[in-house]
Fold these 4 entries.
Entry 1:
Amino acid sequence: MKGDRRSAELDDLIDEITTDANGQDEQLWAFRQALEDDVAVPCEATVIGEPVQVLKFDYDGNERRGLTATCRRADGTKHVVEASEVVIPLTVEGGRYQAAYRKRMGIAPFPPGRRGATRQKPAAPAPKVEGPIELVVLSVKQKAARCRVLGGEQIVTFRAVRLWDVAPGEIAFVRPSKRWTYAGNPYLSGSIESTRLAPKALGLVPLRLEEHGLWNPADHYWGEEGEPLDEWAKPVIARGPRPVFEMEQVLPGADPEDPFSDPIIESNDLKDSGDRDGARRILMDLCQADLRCLDAHAHLGNLVFGGRPENAIRHYEVGFRIGELSLGEGFDGLLPWGRIDNRPFLRCMNGFGLCLWRLGRFDEAGRIFDRMLWLNPTDNQGVRFLIGEVRAGIAWHEE
């Protein structure tokens, strides 16, 4: 009976993982995501009876081969095998997900004599749980987030419910329920009691500003002679010439020698092809590598802007506030769209302002749009066509 119950549980888990996954390819991607999120690697396992450590799961689109696993033998050598050949004991966190994958591929979840794999090395015992802590969120997966302890360098994997409610760059006030270490990596589970946005507390190095001469409003086209000026343009013109700056753009993983190497473009291509999870995964990895990757925050906001502006605004504001660290008090220069590295910051500002408008926060949205026009009077994003409705308190409407 116990075996029947366990088999039924694996069937339920397979159904849970593959919900909304149509066809073999989508189901394999769903399993790849589940294994990445729920199996704590590196972990102890066996391949045809040989003890190994599993380092990574992957899928290259080959449906006949299925998922692969990168493993390390006891002598330190690495090799790649079909993931269905890997047996992870139930004593390992997430081991049941690998068992479910084996069953989905028509293979016995546990070979004879290895059910539960009691001979495997157990995880380290959980240390005593201490009081609340604050964690800097670096990236968020379905059921786990990579975080850094605020004020320190230690990286932990945090597991909790409702992780969709936090964004990379936010600080989460966490009440732990369990701490443990596996394969030398610290883990933490618990509940999130609150979050806050405090970019100055993150310990980030501000993005560099490079000066590029002066911008003169007298050289700018403001419309046909005799036409009235927009109200927003009058103080910009009155201020006179101002210095032009370009903000440093951080893009981890891009190959400076390859002009086509751009993780943001790769993420957008995945989104356009319908693989929104894959697009999100790339952007989260960029944030984990460096929270100063403003374009990752902007495009994370874009992914959910259409249906969840209350979530999108968190991504946009994080990117905007991190960029603000470079400007300091009283910044009076320009960040024109024509200087390409300014675009991630301006995208974050635009998304932030649009979300404020959608959520009915008209005064705040108006201030953001005013500031965008001050920073980029050429207004390549079309804010000047929106600001009148925002100031009039006209509710957001789709166009």
Entry 2:
Amino acid sequence: MTGRLLQLPAPKGQTREFLVVYGHHSSLERWWGLAQALNDYGAVMMPDLPGFGGMDSFYKIGKTATLDNFADYLAAYVQMRYKHRRVTLVGISFGFLVVTRMLQRYPELAGRVDMLISAVGFMHADNFLFTPQRHKAYILASKLGATPPMYHIFRAVGLNSHVLRAAYARTHNAKVKFAQAGDDKAKFDAMMDMEIKLWHCNDVRTHFKTTAEMLTVNNCDRQVDLPVWHAFTPNDNYFDNAVVEQQMQVVFSKYHPARINSAAHAPSVIAGKEESAVLIPKALRTALKPPRKRKKQPKA
């Protein structure tokens, strides 16, 4: 499989190393702003995931886009890139599912992690705010969409640029995304352009299969011996924060909430550094800074 890697060197005086695992329906360009914001605190690595951002999918090598396979892929990447170094893991939404499952399947890797960060992540299928009827409908649609010939038909018809421009912003979940543009037509058009790019660069079969994985996931059955920092918004349009918090407190050794000021689940798909920095609230920024060196006391 071939994909891309975003790599930003650490600024002077910073030694922290971030590995960012982006979320569903994403690419390096979509999260470029957050990478810039994190870069103030250390070096940043953000690789494509199989089937996302233009990278070849698992299906190319005869595998399925399951959460376990993503976890195995990420574990191999961590073992290869961070053999003798510690790393700060940042999982964004679906990316946090992958990070958590990796740590559950490979508990020995916890010793290489100096900090674990959930950026609007979640733990279980019951975290979604959808009605039971909508939840079931999404599961059925995503499972059907992951089968041939449905994903071929969807790519040919549903992902036509003209169809997307005419219909996508009116769909149930996309309405919240595009509300971030307000009355700014230029911003709306830029967001639509990015959304079309994301739909076209992400493998359709992987999109549907990972959607089904998210809607049926259970990452609460194995503990992880690490504290977690969880950046969340009370305005999340996808997840019940109270349930997410309860489950994180059970799975991880310690839970640090970090409330962010965001009107939706995540910044807009065209967010730059300033807008994306909302995912690094004050408490988290403080935790990311290296400890101050104590001044030596003069001898008496």
Entry 3:
Amino acid sequence: MTLEEEKQLLEKIKGDPEFFGKIFDAYYKTIFNYIFHRVADYDISRDIAADTFLKAYLKINTFLWRDVSILTWLYRIATNEINYYYRKNSVTNLSLDLLGSQASILFEFDDYQTEKQLIEDEMKLNEDFDCVQRSLKKLTLKYQEVLSLRYFEKKSLKEISEILDKKEGTIKSLLSRGLDKLKVEYTNATKSGYMHYE
């Protein structure tokens, strides 16, 4: 969807909220995959995605058009929902796989049970996934946010800056420090023998 199409769609939504479904159809899979890469749990990811789109639907009329994609706004809401989930449940964010060095898991959503089973099987087959999860548990959310957006979502520094509402210089710094910390944690985890599922 182009920016011009989004702008026109926003005008239609003001007259008829049913048009919000076009935003859902266009961006749900993208947002779900982002959430899954942060959370690494299919059911929790579905819940967070549902909350993300519900909040977007309820606040769509307050969205101010600034020639920035609605998708950027959705990423921001999803990031806030993920962080809220972790704060509420007193658990640390994890995931990211191997920062894009291996194939990412993407979803088609045709059959819930089949999709869930395929994803769980894929995760079990990927020995490094567990090791990276253990490593990322030791990083703070601010590092996981930028690493996920940069390496999974392939966002530019400018886009990450818009999504997280932080300066590009801050994003660069967080990426650099986050990668350094992840490398240390990952190296320590592999030396400790956490490469396989228990």
Entry 4:
Amino acid sequence: MPAILRKLSTDMLPQGLDDRQRFLRFSELFEHFSDTAELDPAPGVPFRAAMNSIHVGTTMLGRCDGTFTAIRRERRQVLKTNDDRYCLARNTGDRDGVLVHRGREFSLRPGSITLLKLDEPFVSADGAQAKRFTNVHLPPLTLRSMVPGVDEMVGRELEPGGALSLAMDYADLLLSHPAAVEQAGFAIASHMLDLAAVGLGARGDIALAARRGGVRAVRLRAVLTILEQRFTEPDFSAQKLAEAAGLSERYVNELLFEAGASFTARLTERRLHKAAERLAHGEGRISDIAFECGFNDLSYFNRCFRRRFGLTPTAARGR
């Protein structure tokens, strides 16, 4: 399943706008970016906002950080979007938030999580000049089938910790490394749902299956993130990857194989793509590029490159 990545920031606005013009222009763009809510700018401080999101089918991961005092979902947005998904939201700011949903007012401490329903209005308005939060939108029918009493948890503070916090940590990790999502969109959406279901109280066989799938997914993403950060090290190995992830080498190899490719295949592929990218931009000597991308044998690099791309590194330069 393909993933759709989106970004919106006040840094993208034209230069020369005053603060009110910046807010109005951003609000207009935000309505097209995600017609989920409206923002009230904080008085006395320059308006700033940054948002990014990942959409995989009906699952969405999002993050927002900015100088606004309130976030509100009005009745017009409920009617316009016809969106009935559940929304897990975590306060990643440094002070308590105050929310009103389903007629209840409740606090949301830093790190705490709440469950909202997008087919009902809500407002978060607490006087703070800045807000920062992560949210995950989940399909309602599937979540209800996994957690029959899930509606009873809507509109209240949920304690941090356990699988719910793990789900939000997973979302933050993916939002920080969005390119990785494009390789495994469907699996990521499924694992996110598993973690949320376990955290919200799934029971029996459903909980067992979800726990196994969700936890392995988080560990796999951590392994892939480390691999992405260190693939250019010439002596990088499965053992070093396992040590960095705090897992056994055998377990790491099992995770990678289940996800479609061995450690060696993934490492070589990532190095080759980095080399091809640099060659396409005409950067440096071929030998320097090979070594800087992690290959310590130029002949081996040339063979691998030709086998993977159907042409020599020399022919690939500038293409």
